[in-house]
Amino acid sequence: MRHSHRGFEHGRPGGRHRGGHGWEEGEGRRGRRVLDAAGLRLVLLQLLQDTPRHGYDLIRAIEERTGGAYAPSPGIVYPTLTLLQEMGHTREDDGGAGRKTYALTPEGAAFLAANTAEAEALFARLAEIAARRDRVDGMPIRRAMQNLRTVLMDRLGREETRPETVHAVTAILDDAAQRIERL
């Protein structure tokens, strides 16, 4: 699916993907978008407020602010930067080695100042996404889940696995899920 700055709202369903389609993890088309087109414009302007940056740097900055949970795709960011330039909010400089650097213009700074509350709310939302990811995607949990997967694949992948074993494993997993839910 091709994206343009006007088509940003039409991300694909299906949760978080490294390319970033704008949807929060696991929520699909009906979930809350991480950033809509206007939100992405404000976030980019805010990130450019302190220093000019390359498009890739802007993508990484957003990814860092979400704890790695969301990284907008270049197919969304670069058309948005072009739109911001057309609006007079940014300017493009030759960063050398064929890399373009984007900088905030006085018009962009004025627009950002007029929308400070919304920009702050967006950055708070990005921080909440990072905090939520930290709560549910911690390294020890991922390690334990990988260990469980490995053991299950080994144990249940044997030819001699009996139905009683499958039922016992299912009961253990159901019990673990219930115990975690009660924490």
Summarize the structure in short.
This protein is 58% helix and 7% strand. By secondary structure, it is mainly alpha-helical. β2 (90-94) and β3 form a beta hairpin.
Keywords:
single chain, 183 residues, mainly alpha, 3-stranded antiparallel β-sheet, disordered N terminus
Q: Tell me the number of strands.
A: 3
Low-confidence stretches: 1-31
Overall body shape: elongated
The secondary-structure class comes to: mainly alpha
Q: What oligomeric state do these chains adopt?
A: single chain
Helicity, in percent?
Answer: 55-70%
Proportion of beta-strand residues: 5-15%
Element-by-element helix/strand order: HEHHEEHHHH
* Biggest β-sheet: strands ordered side by side in the sheet: 1-3-2
Report how far apart the termini are: 42 Å
Number of helices: 7
Estimated radius of gyration: 22 Å
